[in-house]
């Protein structure tokens, strides 16, 4: 059980944690390969194979979620393509109820995301959840991705966190491992990041399947 009554700071990831990762997976695994195949006159299969190698080379870096970088790298208008399918952006069940509860209990609520600020803007406009946050911190503002300890060191100074009274929820185990090393006391792994995919079993952290599990202040 997470003792929400004792927690002062709640840090929440966006993609996969608050929002259904189906949008992102569909975008990078289907729409981008489709457009890349058309541009280079190759098959969808070949395009996807080439792109997965390119993605892998930049995983865990700032480039990984930098849509301006990918626009240059792939010679595609990535922001425009995201706008085309923004109707697929959805909030996970009970997220808004959880955010409302946190505000009622006067918790400090921060979004901490590797998402590019242009993507953050698209998603906050579509979902209207920005009003529940005291601040949104992006890795581009900090200069490091969440996978690196430097992200947490700088974020702690900006937000004046008390690590012993902080809860952090994310859908990426590697990011949670870095947060644990840094000293964040309460950590939850959000499963069912993509509502249309089955999760691989992970036992490194306590899991959160649905935000309704946190709606009772304990």
From TrEMBL:
GO biological process terms, semicolon-separated:
DNA repair
GO molecular function (one) = phosphoglycolate phosphatase activity
Entries under Gene3D superfamilies matching the protein:
HAD superfamily/HAD-like
According to the UniProt entry, the coiled-coil residues are none
Q: Mind telling me which GO cellular component terms the entry cites? A: cytosol
The UniProt entry, under SUPFAM superfamilies, shows: HAD-like
Which PANTHER family does the annotation name? GMP_IMP NUCLEOTIDASE YRFG (PTHR43434:SF3), PHOSPHOGLYCOLATE PHOSPHATASE (PTHR43434)
Task: Please give the NCBIfam families that the UniProt record associates with this protein.
Answer: HAD-SF-IA-v3
Q: What's the name of the protein?
A: Haloacid dehalogenase
Q: Which organism is it from?
A: hot springs metagenome
């Amino acid at each position: 059980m997470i003792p929400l009554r004792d927690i002062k700071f709640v840090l929440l990831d966006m993609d996969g944690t608050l929002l259904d990762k189906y949008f992102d997976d569909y975008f990078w695994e289907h729409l981008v390969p489709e457009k890349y195949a058309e541009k280079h006159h190759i098959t969808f299969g070949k395009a996807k194979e080439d792109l997965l190698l390119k993605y892998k080379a930049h995983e865990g870096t700032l480039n990984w979620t930098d849509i301006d970088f990918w626009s240059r790298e792939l010679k595609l208008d990535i922001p425009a393509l995201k706008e085309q399918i923004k109707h697929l952006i959805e909030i996970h069940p009970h997220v808004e109820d959880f955010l409302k509860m946190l505000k009622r209990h006067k918790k400090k609520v921060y979004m901490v995301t590797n998402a590019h600020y242009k993507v953050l803007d698209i998603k906050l406009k579509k979902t209207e959840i920005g009003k529940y946050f005291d601040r949104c911190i992006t890795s581009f503002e900090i200069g490091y991705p969440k996978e690196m300890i430097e992200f947490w060191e700088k974020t702690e100074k900006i937000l004046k966190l008390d690590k012993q009274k902080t809860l952090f929820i994310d859908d990426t185990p590697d990011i949670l491992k870095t947060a644990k090393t840094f000293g964040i006391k309460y950590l939850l792994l959000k499963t069912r990041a993509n509502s249309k995919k089955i999760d691989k079993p992970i036992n490194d952290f306590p899991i959160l399947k649905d935000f309704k599990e946190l709606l009772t202040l304990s």
